[in-house]
Write a structure and sequence with these properties.
This protein has about 375 residues and is of the alpha/beta class. The protein has 3 domains: about 80 residues, Winged helix-like DNA-binding domain superfamily/Winged helix DNA-binding domain (Arc Repressor Mutant, subunit A, Orthogonal Bundle), CATH 1.10.10; about 130 residues, ATPase, nucleotide binding domain (Nucleotidyltransferase, domain 5), CATH 3.30.420.40; about 150 residues, Nucleotidyltransferase, domain 5. The chain has a 5-stranded mixed beta sheet with strand order 5-4-3-6-9. Pfam families: HTH_24, ROK. GO terms for molecular function: N-acylmannosamine kinase activity. InterPro entries: ATPase_NBD, ROK, WH-like_DNA-bd_sf, WH_DNA-bd_sf. This is ROK family protein.
Length: about 375
């Protein structure tokens, strides 16, 4: 039987006499509460397609289960019965997110409300997959003990890896992650953590973070560029991650032929150029934290990748027409700005009017966006 995390969810998180965490109507209301902090019950009714009676009944059920908290009445809503403010109860559950890139595993723990409880990382240098995962597990245990987190409230694990999806929970990652490639990761990780594990491409995990915590909270149609050791991304359509037929929508590197591939904006090539120029930058994580646009080789690399970058931006604009393109992954903000400054939109005006082009936005989520997205993925899959 194919691996499915949904069948492994523990009973205390499921609805009574049901095998689901939340019904479709419950999820729609939880999504609205997430997107509108401080919403009152009467305001929620106005935003929902459900009747007032249905909204009240569903909220009462969610409150009884400890998923939603009914707070103090919200002031300033006019006459009539006071309407309590709504809040997702972070204490109901927490999840752990892992993001595996070429040199590090980032770890992030979030609660159901989206609050980050802990962050850390494990370096991959000279360590095999098994040893690295053992260290990740010890980090998780340490966080649980330090924060007093109950194992019964541990809902699941989200796992993102820098590689494209093949089938099931198998991914094809870059050379530094060859040991992680072409194997079923879901069962392996479930055996280690004892909790359901949702696997995904790392760039898609970063895209989920942008949906839940970043620009995607306000912009419903955007493209996310994930600059890492390799280069990929994701697409958001009407506020939801667009997967495509095989789960690889947004694998932007696939548009380049073999020769162009070497001039795409993948950070591995910048790292190699810096090292050839004698700049001491040992890893992409280090580059992110200490980036200096005056390093010898940076300007040269940006000039070299600009044609391929511009063709990509215009291809996204032509095919997908997003409202915004977000620069994320492990891209240093100053480096992202250098590319933005070189952007050329190829569209020509007609009758003096040009087609609207997407805004170019630097993500504000930081280099651990993929770990954040992976952490919230179990909740997004089942609650929101």
């Amino acid at each position: 039987m194919p691996y499915s995390p949904n069948t492994l969810i523990e009973q205390q998180f499921l609805r009574a006499n049901d095998d689901a965490v939340a019904s479709a109507n419950e999820r729609s209301l939880l999504r609205l509460i997430w997107r509108h902090p401080g919403l009152s019950r009467s305001e929620l009714t106005g935003l929902s397609d459900l009747t007032q009676q249905s909204v009240h009944r569903i909220l009462d059920t969610l409150a009884e289960r400890g998923i939603v908290l009914l707070g103090e009445p919200k002031p300033g809503l006019g006459s009539g019965q006071p309407s309590p403010m709504l809040q997702i109860n972070g204490g109901h559950a927490y999840a752990c997110g892992l993001s595996v890139t070429s040199d590090v595993i980032d770890i992030c723990i979030v609660d159901l409300s989206g609050k980050t409880l802990a962050e850390s990382s494990v370096l991959l240098w000279d360590r095999g997959m098994r040893k690295s995962l053992e260290l990740v597990y010890q980090e998780l245990i340490g966080h649980q003990q330090r924060l007093g987190l109950s194992k019964e409230r541990f809902f699941g694990v989200g796992f993102g890896i820098a590689g494209f999806h093949l089938d099931g929970t198998r991914y094809n990652a870059s050379l530094p992650l060859h040991e992680w490639s072409l194997i079923e990761l879901g069962p392996l990780l479930y055996q280690l953590f004892g909790k359901p594990v949702w696997t995904m491409n790392g760039a898609k995990a970063g895209t989920i973070a942008e949906i839940m915590f970043g620009a995607g909270r306000h912009i419903k149609h955007l493209a996310y560029l994930s600059f890492n050791y390799g280069f990929g991304g994701g697409l958001i359509s009407d506020g939801e991650l667009l997967l495509g037929g095989n789960g690889n929508a947004g694998e932007f590197s696939q548009m380049y032929d073999h020769e162009e591939n070497l001039r795409r904006p993948a950070l591995q090539y910048l790292l190699e150029r810096l090292q050839r120029n004698g700049v001491n930058v040992p890893s992409i994580s280090y580059m992110r934290k200490h980036f200096d646009r005056n390093w010898q080789g940076v300007e040269e690399w940006v000039d070299e990748v600009t044609p391929a970058y511009n063709r990509l931006v215009n291809a996204i604009w032509a095919v997908y027409d997003p409202q915004a393109i977000v620069f994320g992954g492990q891209m240093p903000p100053d480096l992202a700005q250098m590319l933005i400054d070189r952007t050329e939109f190829f569209g020509r005006p007609r009758y003096g009017a040009s087609r609207p082009h997407p805004k170019l936005i630097i993500s504000e989520l930081g280099s651990d966006a993929a770990a954040m997205g992976a952490a919230v993925r179990p909740f997004q899959a089942c609650f929101y």
